[in-house]
Amino acid sequence: xxxxxxxxxxxxxxxxxxxxxxxxxxxxxxxxxxxxxxxxxxxxxxxxxxxxxxxxxxxxxxxxxxxxxxxxxxxxxxxxxxxxxxxxxxxxxxxxxxxxxxxxxxxxxxxxxxxxxxxxxxxxxxxxxxxxxxxxxxxxxxxxxxxxxxxxxxxxxxxxxxxxxxxxxxxxxxxxxxxxxxxxxxxxxxxxxxxxxxxxxxxxxxxxxxxxxxxxxxxxxxxxxxxxxxxxxxxxxxxxxxxxxxxxxxxxxxxxxxxxxxxxxxxxxxxxxx
Length: 274
Description:
By secondary structure, the protein is an alpha/beta fold. It has one domain (2-261): Rossmann fold (3-Layer(aba) Sandwich), CATH 3.40.50. The protein is built from 9 helices and 9 strands. Strands 3-2-1-4-5-7-8 form a 7-stranded mixed β-sheet, with helices on one face. Strands 6-9 form a two-stranded parallel ribbon. Helix 1 runs parallel beside helix 7. The longest helix is centred in the first third of the chain and has 24 residues, at 53-76. The model has no long low-confidence stretch (mean pLDDT 94).
């Protein structure tokens, strides 16, 4: 039995994740520390004085899709994740870091939380896992499963599980998974289906933590991309939907094998993901 603490957010996908992980027979969730949405992409976009109608429409579409995928599970599943709710960034405050350390979990599990600082980093070195929704080291920073679709590169959509460190998506990679597509997918369908696959993979990693094998890391590519929330523009959303209207996913599926071969990912031999 793995005793874990989850550090996460409070949007519907985060609630789905923590409740799903807590259902595992082999995992005990001591607490889930759930940060608020004060600095979410929607909140930041709404605060801007420049035109943002197209971006807000996209975010509303994403939120409705999350409800379609996750709300029934969230509303009907017993919650064993022992949630503690706090403001964005407060997980690094002495009150919460002391509580986490005193709980003596086997592992810390991060998904969608603030950048974590000391003393949690050193206290749980080697036992602190994070998932980056994106394929490192190719795409780092913010929106890293959004930008590959804007750039016409569906092969770069995925998740990277890593040992957390002080950098941004720079920790030692444990395992990676790449998104799967269907012919009539929308951007939101792709993202939400992938949250489910990511959660399954994370559960497998937690349960099999001691069996994980250390792997040679991927080299930093010459075309490494790093995005920030401020890069999310009206123009990028227009490009995203134009790509889908012009057959981005259909073209990708016809070229999938060749395109994926050019973008290698790390899969841990200790994990059976069938």
